[in-house]
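Example (one chain per record):
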Amino acid sequence: MDESVVVSPDWLAARLEEPGVRIVDVRDPWEYEGIGHVPGAVSVPFDSYRDESDVDRGTLPGAKAFAELLSGVGIAPEDAIVAYDDTHGVFAARFVLTALEYGHDDVRLLDGDYSAWNRTYETTTDEPDLEPTAYEADPLSREESPLVGLVAVEDALERGALFVDTREDHEFEEAHLPGAVRFDWREVVDDETRRLKAEDELEDVLGEYGITPDREIVLYCNTARRISHTYVVLRALGYDDVAFYEGSLTEWLANDGEIETGPA
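Predicted structure:
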């Protein structure tokens, strides 16, 4: 696994005291405050970096809002951020995707979640002292960004790209993009350890669905949350040609895009 994308609990534990490493807890505030958190972590709840009021932007919060959010918790553009949740990383992965889109160079997903961390390492209810920064976002250009829109998706369908639907069976059966394969995002997680499966296991699981590094891959779900996790995992495995359909099926259906129904 590429440690510039996904890091282990051991990696993080060895760097808790490093000033340039900032830890972001995206759980609900009551979990952060009442259950405990990784020492030094700041609270950035999932709802604070998700905005469903602007259809053209998907659910991204906007560069200005995101910059203000990070400024408020004392994060600077040069910091290395490690994000986690307690849901196998799916909400934290959305934070990773958002930070990358707004130009943060070093943002990583904790392999596992709060429960996985808590099995080995100490937690705390102490909140760190925060000194606000003057964070400025630097959004990726259209050429740099993995996010694609409706027209690009239509073109990818014409090219025969592999569309990967990360939703549940019943959702897929109701409607999916033409030719899509269904890949439940949770298949990459080991239920016992709550961490990602070993790299060779991941490659085998993905390969069973034809999700291989030589393919052009387009990810989608309903509102681009679940594909965030799959995107981060593929990126950590070295997949280069992975597009992220931010509008996902919500936008596709709103524009009367062609669909198929039935089981995978």
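Caption: The longest helix spans residues 90-101.
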